Amino acid sequence: MEEYYVLIVGAIAIFVFVLIVSFFRRYKRCPSDRILVIYGKVGKDKAQESRSAKCIHGGAAFIWPVIQDYSFMDLTPISIEINLTSALSKQNIRVDVPSRFTVGISTEPGIMINAAERLLGLTRVDINNLAKDIIFGQLRLVVATMDIEEINSNRDKFLAAVSSNVEAELKKIGLKLINVNVTDINDESGYIQALGKEAAAKAINDAKKTVAEKNRDGSVGEANAMQDQRVLVAAADATAVEGENTAKITIANSNASRRQMEAEAEKKAVAAEKVNQAQALEEAYAAEREAEKARAERDKAAQTADIVIPAMVDKEKVEIAAEAIAEQTRRHAKGEADAIFMKMEAEAKGIYEVLTKQAEGFRKLVAAAGDDPNSAVKLMIADKLPELTKIQVEAVKNLKIDKITVWDNMSGGKDGNSPTSAKFLSGMLGAIPPYEELFKMAGMELPDYLKGKTKPEENQPKEAEVVEE
Fold first, then answer.
1. CA 248, CA 5: separation in Å to the nearest integer?
2. Residues linked to residue 70 through DSSP beta bridges, in sequence order
3. Which of 32, 80, 349, 421 is most buried, by the most CB atoms less than 10 A from its CB?
4. DSSP per-residue codes, 32-52
5. Which one is predicted more confidently, 23 or 317?
6. Can you state the angle between helices 460-468 and 373-395, rounded to 10 degrees?
7. What average pLDDT does the chain have?
8. Residue 314 falls in which region: left (phi positive, over 0), alpha (psi -120 to 50) or beta
9. CA distance 421 to 427
């Protein structure tokens, strides 16, 4: 059951996802250079009649599936060349009217519906041909209602009539007239050319007449002007002389004033110039002084940077290196001192332990000797006696005597009868250090029993007990 529910939920989720995707795909946006045409079941108009299509320019709409579909119409203008020839005018004169029309699909609501009903699905070539046929017919109609003089002289009226007739017919299929340009108008009989020549000749004759009249008026006016000139010149000469004199006086006064003012101005200018030059020199000297100070500061800074700072850096390097070496030496010395201290401490501890153990042994030895230090010393000497004997033996051990030849004259003794060889042997034995001397050198006293001396009877049992022990 759980798997069944999972499958149902998955199917519903997939269906909802597909529905949402389809919804977004059916929402269409209309570009600014196109018209979105929705056809199918698009509702009713104000007269409650079913509309054939719905046109949208600039916006978006949702296209219902199954009942609606959509298409686009291009708003790009179409340029149509119309070479109208042999068009019959009102005067039964055939004329040629070469022109160019620019049309495009209209964006007015009612006209867009006409375009959707009549142009949807057509190519630009088809629309061009359809518009060309309509323009040809209307252009012939306008030419037939006007005289050649009117067509040739009043182009604005002709273009207005053409635009009005052509645009009215183009709206029926959803098009809009954008521009009309008539390049030239000709006729087969040369009537328009003759009209041009007539107008040119009339204009030339009118110009010649106007020139003659102007020449006549110019001659009369010239004579009158000469008369008036002579009178006026004489009066003007008199007035001119008087005025000239007055002007000379005025000029002289003005020149004097001018020269005076120029002299004052020159003096002020020279003084101002001198002052300005002095100020300029002062400012220049001050600027040079400041520049020299700046240069000196710069040189000082450069030398400081090149000499002092490297020296200080080297000094700091040397100081840091010396401090590092001193610190290293101190640490080595401290380490060695610590090592020596630890070694000496360990040796002291060892010596202390040895001496402690020796003292403990001596204490026990003295205790064993009945708290008698002399008896304890005797026990120690008795214990070391074999070693002492060995040392005495080692003293003469390495003496090599392969052969001794003795010539004895039997007169070596005190009595004169003792052999000399006996004296020699006793001398050799006497050369061996005696025990008593050895003990004295060590700061001790050889016991009496080793010296060959006997002690009183009262001391014998105690010594015997000590020896036995």
1. 127
2. 38
3. 80
4. TTEEEEEEES--B-TTS-B-S
5. 317
6. 70
7. 76
8. alpha
9. 10
Q: Please give the distance of CA 226 from its chain centroid, rounded to a whole number.
A: 89
pLDDT for 52:
80
Higher pLDDT, 377 or 398: 377
Residue 260 corresponds to which tokens in the numbers above? 């005076």
Q: How confident is the model at residue 101 (pLDDT cuts 50, 70, 90)?
A: very high
pLDDT exceeds 70 at position 286? yes
Question: In this structure, what are the phi and psi dihedrals at residue 70, rounded to the nearest 5 degrees?
Answer: -145, 165
Summarize pLDDT for 293-318 with one digit per residue, the tens: 888 888 887 777 778 788 888 888 88
Q: How many residues does the chain have?
A: 469
Look-up of token digits 């529910």 = 5
Pick from 104, 232, 223: which is nearest to 170 by CA?
104
Q: What CA–CA distance (Å, rounded) separates 142 from 135?
A: 10
Residues 436, 419: Cα–Cα separation, whole Å: 29
Backbone angles phi, psi at 130, to 5 degrees: -65, -45
Token representation of residue 13: 């989720």
Q: Of 177, 186, 176, 172, give the one whose Cα is nearest residue 159.
A: 177
pLDDT at 425: 54
User: Which residues neighbour 30 within 8 Å (Cβ) at sequence distance 6 or greater?
Assistant: 36, 56, 57, 58, 59, 60, 61, 72
Q: Closest by alpha carbon to 130, among 165, 159, 172?
A: 172
The predicted pLDDT at position 103 comes to 92
**pTM score, whole prediction:** 0.40
Rounded CA separation 34/74 (Å): 5
| Top-level class of domain 76-189 | alpha beta
Please tell me the least confidently modeled range out of 48-62, 242-256, 311-325, 397-411. Answer: 397-411
Domain boundaries, the chain: 1-75, 76-189, 372-468
pLDDT computed for residue 459 by the predictor: 46
Q: Give yes or no for a contact between 43 and 54, defined as CB atoms under 8 angstroms apart.
A: yes
- Orientation angle between helical segments 155-171 and 124-144, nearest 10 degrees: 130
> What is the reported pLDDT for 404?
59
Q: Are strands 94-105 and 68-74 parallel, antiparallel or unpaired?
A: unpaired
Concatenating the DSSP letter of every residue in 109-169 gives HHHHHHHHHHTTT--HHHHHHHHHHHHHHHHHHHHHTS-HHHHHH-HHHHHHHHHHHHHHH
Sign of CA dihedral 222, 224, 230, 236: negative
CA 333 from chain centre, in angstroms, equals 54
Annotate 343-409 with DSSP letters as a single string: HHHHHHHHHHHHHHHHHHHHHHHHHHTTS-HHHHHHHHHHHHHHHHHHHHHHHTTT-----------
Task: Quickly tell me which residue has 């000749």 as its tokens.
Answer: 201
Q: Match 């001397």 to its residue by tokens.
A: 437
Residue tagged 């009496």 (tokens): 448
